[in-house]
Amino acid sequence: MAETNDVIIIGGGVIGCSIAYYLTKKGIKPLVIEKREIGTGGSSRNGGGVRQSARDPRELPLAMHGVKNLWPGLSEELGSDVEYCQGGNLRMGKTEAHIKFLTAMVESQKKLGLELEMVDGDRVKEILPYASDSIIGASWCPTDGHGNPMLTTLAFYKKALEKGAEFIVGESVEDVIIRKGKVAGVRTDGGTYDAPLVINAAGVGARDIARKVGLDIPMQPRLVEVIVTDQQPVLFDQMLGTAGSDFYGHQSKHGSFVFGGMTGWEDREFYDHRQVTKSNTAPATCRAILDYFPWMERTNVVRAWSGILAVVADGVPVMGPAEELPGFYFASCFCGHGYGISPAVGEQMAELVAEGRSTLPLDAFRFDRFLPKN
Amino acid sequence: MAESNRRKAPEGEYVPKADDDLLICRCEEVSQGDIRRALHQGLRTMNEIKRETRLGMGLCQGQTCTRIARAFIARELGVAPGEVGLPTPRTPARPVPMTVIARDGIMDEAAGEGI
Amino acid sequence: MRRVELAVVGAGPAGLSAAIEAARHGVEVVVFDENQRPGGQLFKQIHKFFGSKEHRARERGFRIGEDLLKEARELNVTVELETVVSGIYDGLELVVTKNDRVEHLRANAVVIATGASENMIPFPGWTLPGVIGAGAAQTMCNLHGVKPGKNILMVGSGNVGVVVGLQLIQAGCSLEAVIDASPRVGGYGVHAAKIARTGVPFHLRHTIKEVYGKDRVEGAVIVEVDEKWQPVPGSEKDLKVDTVCMAVGLSPMYQLSKIAGCETVEDPSRGGVVPICDEYGATTVPGIYVAGDVSGIEEASSAMIGGKIAGASAALKQGYLAQDVFEERYAAFRKSLEQLRQGQFGHGMKGKKITHTQEGIEVSESLLCRGFVDESEILRFPGIPSEEIRMRGLTPVIECTQNIPCDPCREACVKGCIRIGESITDLPSLSKEVQCTGCGMCVAACPGQAIFLLNQNYSDGEALVVLPYEFQPLPEAGDEGTACDRSGNPVGKAKVLKVQKAKTMDGTAVLSMIVPRELAMTARFFRPSGSEERRA
Lengths: 374, 115, 536
Known about the structure:
The complex is a heterotrimer of chains A (374), B (115) and C (536). Chain B is an alpha+beta fold and 115 residues long. Chain B has helices at residues 32-40, 46-53, 65-77, 98-101, and strands spanning 6-7, 23-25, 30-31, 96-97. Chain B has a two-stranded antiparallel sheet. Chain C contains 13 helices and 28 strands. Chain C starts with a strand and ends in an 8-residue tail after the last strand. Chain C is globular and about 80 Å long. The chains are: A alpha/beta (374), B alpha+beta (115), C alpha/beta (536). Chains in contact: A-B, A-C, B-C. At the A-B interface, helix 6, strand 9, helix 8 and strand 18 of A face strand 1, helix 2, strand 4 and helix 4 of B. Strand 18 of chain A pairs antiparallel with strand 4 (96-97) of chain B.
């Protein structure tokens, strides 16, 4: 006899744990099924940005809501420090083309209500005295910031557990059970779990889960890498990016710098579906960093790791119900920018599940957008 | 279902133990108490503990403490060390300055030779 | 990108042996090592090795290292020192850094021979300066000529603990005690006996409770443990030491292999997490082989054979070695390796309680519990001549009581007095007609320093005891001092008759001392007068 649950969440990453937590706040005690360990996928392999600037307009309301209403009190609410730091976001430029690109981005986002501005090289130096002289301008969003994704995921997990959510860790979902046209539960390699509602928050595995019920998402994995340095005195608290997108990152509370970077070939790198680091990515990242911060040349890199982005064709997540299969919900495909909106996604998804509607509209993220238009 | 896969709410408050202060990870100063508290809150694997406490994330990258920590976690949980997982060793195997990493392909044009 | 045929990571016994074997068949080899000196652990191993001639028994580790390096150079192997292999990527691409230079190069095959790291156990005070690994202590003494401390506690009675313990004494440190939580000495009994007869106490069933001190170690408290490894209240002993050496095992350094994508497995019999490999050293990544301690903790002698197997495999892979030639060589390596793995310390024997030797002789309990064979037990072993023979004239007395793969004594005696049975692990015995010339070669050859010569009828009321001696300053003929028993207890007066030194003895002096006849089977150590009493 399978056990019965109200909600099953597939995936114990930051999205799954956040939804689980916000569901418990609504009195629903979900069962989360995680294949590996808590926060093992992209949730512990990302740059930690809590950023509104440069968000897709469809995502921006979630990002702004999170920064305004959820992130500031999150550590206190969850009872664990998630190392949220609202140090602002500087996206730096070195060429006229960069400035042009950034200016256009700033203008379009201002229209959407985000408070951000273009600043010149001198102002960049005021905000970030450690930046190189070659930076001639930047977009500056003072309400952006960063957090610690590993701690955030675990904080949601711990609080959700404490409030009655249960987690099955180490079982892989083999099938989603459908009875009489509705979702009825899942079967794993360890057992069968009944629930009328299943949320697919399986990260890069979300496409495989969806395909089990015949739904396919135009999503591809993309391998990206981050380098981490040894502990240094804490120098700055901004989230950094560049107009050329050659690196991004921040300094953690611990003092290590966490910087992601690219070779430019990431779209084609996930050749044999193994999560590896490439010999040319860390060098490319280091060159990009040293271009902006030459004084970092003696800073030691202690590790490099890779993560897999779940990149969807149109660049925004898939969220909400699959209309044709009652009980099947998506919270997937965050394309590498899910961490910053994870509290908002958890809260809104919980509302959607518990009350049938969410405060913020999630329509732009519906799965149906990929279906033939009748 | 394997009941050992299930994680539920912790029972009661964490009760400190006499030897909580004993350090397990020297680089990041992670103590037995830090690990026990994390276990009490529902964390179960080396990687989860690592992410929570920074165990093994310091300069030596877990060279000394991984074995000690695995044994300790396994003992606290009453399982074999193999069951609590293994953190993934990462490149570079030893710390390397950014400027050195950055030089691949463009270095030593003057020298014109390999190592 | 520069390509090499074989890249070897680690210039220790396994790595160098792999390089030599591959180069011998024509493979172009580069060896990388992050240390200043090649040889891995060999260069600090100043003791003589066990095994047989093919395993380079009775040779000292550092000399083996020198020979390996010479051989490698003759075969045009490139050895790059102070060079870190910081990553191995897909396509067998190695990223190596030396000082501030980096190179990406590609290998057709890679042998990972990264060795092992020292284990630690946490206890209050374990992070204080003065708590060090035994291997680190050995590096300080034997490579850098620095004493790690004055008064030392050795934690762990395995071979590392007892071997390094002796070397610390040789360096002039005072070894206060050897402790082990196990009820039995873990290392070879003969190694333990070398330090026991200098007066070092063994506290078995003891663990370290705490180390104290303000800024560094000022003392250590040890405590007895019961059958369930729990401390026995009230059994604490306070030892005034300034250094605590930890010899509590080694862990294979599997990290680079895992970075390279090799699958690993938890295997306690091999020392912990190790890369999965087959009998040829091949890992789960094609082209990557492992050898030496990284593939399972063993002695350097075994590591050298493992290296040869991996080197031959890499040569076979690249067509430098025909399949049939490879198989022939492999069979020989395997046979040699299996010899080393025999005996009571061999494969699969860890943790097993031995009650009798393979000859059916009851083992020495005293050796296991106190580090030396008690006089009351020694007579039952086959290397001990009868009193009649001992009274007849000079004879070897072989105090070898454990089945260890080792046979240099047999060859050392030109008169053929010493016999070892079919198996290399058989205990040595004496031929019926002992014709001892007193050359002392067997005394100096025994890596366990367990062979003595004895003439119980040297003169009226006196016996002559000939023993191996490796301490400085070397006594001289005519020196007077104290004869000590196997536990280091002073038992009577002794006078040095002569001290033999010869190149073939390789640094082991052979000291003849005259003692009262009743001490013939008791006196096994000479302490020069004026040297301090070790025991109260």
